[in-house]
């Protein structure tokens, strides 16, 4: 059964300085008008969790060194930081100090960052004849469940 997974904060590192937005626990939907950056923030959060299909906005790639997302799970508060240049995600449990550094697309069968994020959610990564359960497929469900228009989901 899936566990607790709540987005708490989204930050961007520009010229060595972190800044961003708090996403308090009462947040249910990130709604913004066209061009206001809502999808950019969502995609950056997904990239920080190890999603492989997210294409970061050129503005983020050109201006940011890293993207950091803080989430609360059943195992504590975790900070996931994507180093944009190396495509490596570091996970830090703020409560226990547990630390993991994982590549988004690892070589030689190592665990990818996205699989670790699924573990934090309490969802097993699976490969089945009908399809795969990956961080990308789960995040698509999360974003689609928060939209009211089915067209938004089918376009992703």
Describe this structure in words.
- The chain has 156 residues and is an alpha+beta fold.
- The protein has five helices and eight strands, in the order E-E-H-H-E-E-E-E-H-E-E-H-H.
- A six-stranded antiparallel beta sheet has the order 2-1-3-4-5-6, covered by helices on one side.
- The protein is globular and about 45 Å long.
- The C terminus is likely disordered.
User: How would you state the average pLDDT, rounded?
Assistant: 79
> How would you sum up the major sheet?
6 strands, antiparallel
Enumerate how many helices there are, as a single number: 5
Shape verdict: globular
Assembly category: single chain
How many beta strands in the DSSP annotation? 8
Low-confidence stretches: 145-156
Order of helices and strands: EEHHEEEEHEEHH
Rg for CA atoms: 15 Å
Please report which band the strand proportion falls in: under 5%, 5-15%, 15-25%, 25-35%, 35-45% or over 45%: 25-35%
Helix fraction bin: 25-40%
Strand order of the largest sheet: 2-1-3-4-5-6
Q: How far apart lie the N and C ends?
A: 26 Å
Structural class: alpha+beta
Name a few traits of the molecule.
156 residues; alpha+beta; 6-stranded antiparallel beta sheet; disordered C terminus
Question: What's the quick description here?
Answer:
The chain has 156 residues and is α+β, with helices and mostly antiparallel strands. The protein contains five helices and eight strands, in the order ββααββββαββαα. It starts with a strand and ends with a helix.
């Amino acid at each position: 059964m899936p566990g607790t997974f709540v987005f708490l904060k989204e930050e961007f590192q520009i010229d060595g300085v972190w800044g961003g937005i708090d996403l308090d626990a009462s947040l249910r939907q990130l709604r913004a008008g066209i061009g206001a950056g809502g999808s950019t923030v969502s995609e950056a959060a997904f990239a920080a969790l190890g999603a492989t299909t997210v294409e970061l906005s050129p503005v983020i790639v050109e201006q940011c060194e890293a993207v950091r997302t803080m989430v609360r799970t059943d195992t504590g508060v975790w900070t996931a930081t994507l180093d944009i240049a190396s495509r490596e995600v570091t996970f830090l449990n703020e409560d226990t100090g547990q630390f993991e550094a994982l590549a988004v697309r690892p070589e030689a069968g190592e665990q990818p960052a996205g699989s670790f994020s699924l573990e934090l959610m309490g969802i097993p990564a699976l490969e089945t004849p009908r399809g795969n359960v990956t961080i990308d497929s789960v995040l698509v469900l999360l974003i689609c469940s928060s939209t009211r228009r089915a067209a938004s989901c089918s376009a992703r």
